[in-house]
Fold this protein.
Amino acid sequence: MKRIKLTAAYDGTNYHGWQLQPGKPTIEGELNRALSLLTGEQIKVTGASRTDAGVHALGNVAVFDTASHIPAEKFAYALNQRLPADIVIQSSEETLPDFHPRHCDCRKTYEYTILNRKFPLPQYRNTAYFYYGNLDTDKMRKACTAFTGKHDFAGFCSSGAQVQSTIRTIYSLEVTSSNIPGAGFNNTGKIITIRVQGNGFLYNMVRIIAGTLLEVGKGRINPDDMEEIIASCDRNRAGATAPAKGLKLVQILY
């Protein structure tokens, strides 16, 4: 028996999140199906991040145990022939028998993408949140500084989370902006990216951070008030939960 580590990229548009749900398509369900078909065993993967419905990933991590003689590095190639086109294994490798993707120290990086222009663009319809009004990215950047470090982020967690502690550490949070080339005369707009890295995130935490920074960009929250908002642990003082489609899990480093 050996333990295999997979790094998976996926477009979450057509899935009800990572975690198995009876009668609904999920990323975990598709991986279990393809692996069981490939190995002839009843395979159940364990994922590092249980992304929500509509959330995407460039590098989510999962492990599974198998007695198969298939070389570890070949699983990626074999699985990609059996998975839907919107799920692609980026790498497969043998790992330690006791490696657990959720119980090991790691750094997770997420990005939230905002399409900020007068009209939406079809190619971004599933991968970015569209906002037509002006967003002040300078104010959004200023607000980022309050988030870095170790804090109680209870105010940035949706109800229903089953966690022992709401304290998390954010190593970096940044807002970048880039123009959209060839997007139309006097209507180029911009792509705003919120990139955050931390040791772990609460339920909907990144989407609430994005929603709060959107409120800052709109001028509805003062960036100077952000430290007080975080310290209050009051969910009502933070912004709304931004839509899932703008979020992607970029990388998990162990």
Notes: The chain has five helices and ten strands. The first helix runs from residue 27 to 39.
